[in-house]
Specification:
Elements: E1 8-10, H1 14-19, E2 31-34, E3 37-40, E4 42-44, E5 47-54, E6 77-79, H2 98-103, E7 118-123, E8 130-136, H3 154-160, E9 163-167, H4 172-176, H5 193-208, E10 214-224, H6 226-234, E11 246-250, E12 258-259, H7 260-273, H8 281-286, H9 289-295, E13 302-303, E14 326-331, H10 346-356, H11 361-371, H12 377-388, H13 390-404, E15 409-414, H14 433-436, H15 449-468, E16 488-492, E17 497-500, H16 504-514
Helix pairs in contact: 10-11, 10-12
């Protein structure tokens, strides 16, 4: 994606800037003190922006697979006007898919490096005690960036007078290879290093965000896809307790994580690909990161019993975050991101359904056609794949949070079809992401009047939630908390509306087929 043109004003350095600011007595504070040194930002379209602020030290060499360290303090003023490094990951090369281009996923601004523990801050020009919105990026646990266009926080700042933070942290094998049984006691937390980075970022927010105008006692975490999975995991981590006070998951509700037995097999497979054996820690810490990333297989946080002591939402909602209200959302055709058979016909759809639930194709297709008689076969396929897994996890997460009885959960479904390519993508995975940032000016929203209205609706709900713990606002209908009687869900579409137990017959059917 290409952001629209923005006016940039560089900050001034030194005592001259302090005595004769370029904007007069009410000059925006572009040099800010942090616990590790002073940082300089810029003004973009009336918003202060600080890019690439370190919250942790370099994770290469002897620090690879280790818990995050504090960044070294620096003298003078650090220039934080350009993007910091993002985590090493597999880079899309050659021809990328239409979907990838649309959501801007092949954007690696900042460059790849193991010195990637940095964050970005968008803040109003002045003021204090603003609610803070900390976004963790998507991409599962293996890809992505806090520097993506869709995550830029200036729209939320201007719309809602908040502070926005986006985070870069370790990914893939470098963040989640469990070497605890293979590499010695110092590797005991290697399977959760990436999540420890996320906690370190939140600790930085606690310690520093007031200097940027934020309130460390009013912090919301949120994330889409893998970002939602990270937020789900933070909900069960004792080290994250008290560092955030609201949480929102978009198409990322995570119930269970990898356990040590599976994690060890994954680690053994990685070592074998690298021609390493147990105890070859010096070699795995010194080889180029590109080799490790190229060899990685299944990775993700490990239930290690200490840092991540349990599964996020199994068998119930975690007690450590019982007082944290939640927003839980999905997109109507989320799983379309994994599909490219845009022109599949009804016969092909029925054959695919049979491969998913043998002997049930007529029943399943009939249920969907009763609700959507004219919907394209591709969109029905994407919706079925979503309902079968991701949406069931979202509902389960909401049910378990609600059963806890301590803080509310609010559910939504994003039905508004992306207007790109004649609407062929539908309400596909990620089409609510920039909208939650109150931003319609991406390739997903195209800047159309209706997109601006949708961004206003979802963005306003997120802003209200960040400030109060309740998404109710003047731009949407009344949004009550979820409960297992009404099962109220806010449906974001051209006609945004509250529905009670939407598609109840489909959910019941999938519950029966899964049992």
């Amino acid at each position: 994606m290409t952001p629209h043109r923005r006016h940039v004003v560089q900050g001034l350095l030194g005592s001259a800037a302090a005595s004769t600011p370029a904007w007069g007595a009410s000059a925006p504070k572009l040099v800010v003190e942090t616990s590790h040194g002073k940082v300089k930002g810029v003004v973009l379209d009336g918003t202060r922006l600080f890019r690439g602020i370190p919250y942790g030290g370099d994770t290469s060499g002897k620090n690879r697979f280790m818990p995050p360290t504090r960044p070294a303090k620096w003298a003078g003023v650090r220039d934080c006007t350009d993007w910091g490094h993002i985590a090493p990951q597999r880079v899309a090369s050659g021809t990328v898919s239409e979907y990838t281009r649309m959501v801007g996923w092949n954007n690696y601004r900042g460059g790849l490096s193991e010195d990637c523990l940095n964050l970005n801050v968008w803040a109003p020009l002045s003021g204090s005690k603003r609610a803070v919105m900390v976004a963790f990026h998507g991409g599962g646990f293996t890809s992505g960036s806090g520097n993506l266009v869709a995550l830029e926080g200036d729209h939320l700042v201007r719309e809602g007078d908040v502070v926005v933070v986006t985070v870069n942290h370790r990914l893939g094998a470098l963040g989640y290879t469990d070497l605890s049984a293979l590499g010695g006691p110092e590797f005991v937390t290697s399977g959760v290093a990436g999540m420890m980075d996320c906690v370190a970022a939140l600790e930085w927010v606690r310690d520093n965000i007031a200097n940027f105008g934020g309130d460390p006692g009013k912090v919301m975490i949120f994330g889409q896809s893998g970002g939602g999975a990270k937020c789900s995991t933070l909900m069960c981590m004792p080290s994250a307790k008290g560092l955030f006070h609201r949480a929102a998951m978009q198409s990322g509700s995570t119930i269970k994580l990898t356990h040590r037995d599976v994690a060890r097999k994954n680690a053994e497979a990685l070592l074998a690909k690298l021609n390493l054996g147990p105890g070859d820690t010096a070699r795995i810490q010194s080889m180029p990161f590109e080799q490790i990333i190229a060899a990685q297989g299944q990775v993700g946080p490990v239930v290690d019993g200490t840092v991540v002591p349990r599964d996020p939402f199994d068998p119930d909602a975690p007690a450590v975050s019982a007082d944290v209200p939640m927003i839980i959302g999905t997109c109507l055709e989320d799983q379309g991101l994994n599909m490219t058979d845009w022109d599949i016909d009804e016969a092909g759809l029925k054959t695919w359904i049979e491969s998913q639930v043998p002997g049930q194709a007529d029943k399943v297709l009939g249920a969907y056609r009763r609700l959507y008689p004219a919907k394209r076969a591709f969109l029905i396929k994407a919706m079925i794949a979503t309902d079968k897994a991701w949406r069931r996890n979202a509902v389960l997460q909401a049910e378990r949070k609600t059963a806890q009885g301590r803080a509310p959960a609010y559910m939504y479904r994003w039905d508004w079809p992306c207007p790109v390519a004649g609407g062929k993508f539908g309400a596909i995975h990620g089409t609510d992401l920039s909208m939650s940032f109150a931003n319609a000016d991406t390739d997903v929203g195209t800047g159309s009047p209706q997109a601006r209205l949708m961004a206003k609706r979802l963005g306003s709900a997120y802003l209200a939630f960040a400030k109060t713990g309740n998404p109710d606002n003047a731009n949407t209908p009344h949004w009550p908390a979820y409960n297992v009687v009404d099962r109220s869900v806010m449906v974001f579409d051209d006609e945004t509306r509250l529905e009670k137990n939407p598609h109840a017959e489909l959910q019941l059917m999938w519950d029966q087929l899964a049992s």
